[in-house]
Amino acid sequence: MHEAHVARFIHTSRLSRSSEFTYNNPASAQSLQWILRSDCKTPIDDVTLEINGRPVVDLKEPLLAGASLKYAGGADIVIADASWKELSRLPVNPALMRINPGIARIRISSKPAPDNAIKLELRALGSAMPIKPK
Asked: Which of 11, 55, 86, 129 is packed most tightly, with the most Cβ within 10 A?
């Protein structure tokens, strides 16, 4: 079992095209795991995600209402619908997801619209802890 260090953020594009957040990774250097989820009733255009200034997502198609992107390691980002059914995968360079201990800068952007909202959950894993059977 691993201790998870989780942070959650919300980007609303009615105020600004992009939102910047900082995430403090208290664990060792690793690939940052994340879930980016639409929280609106209409598709969101021009969704991008950057980690420490490196573009990791640049969607060419709209993010559908309730849809999500999930990265849990490896060479693919999973695109799922509102009920978490996998729709497709995007290839990604895993090296772009690497973060060091300490502060990581995160930026989400999307085309401005009155009801655009994107939820972002970031997760880094601590060292493994053994589970002792009773």
From this structure: 11
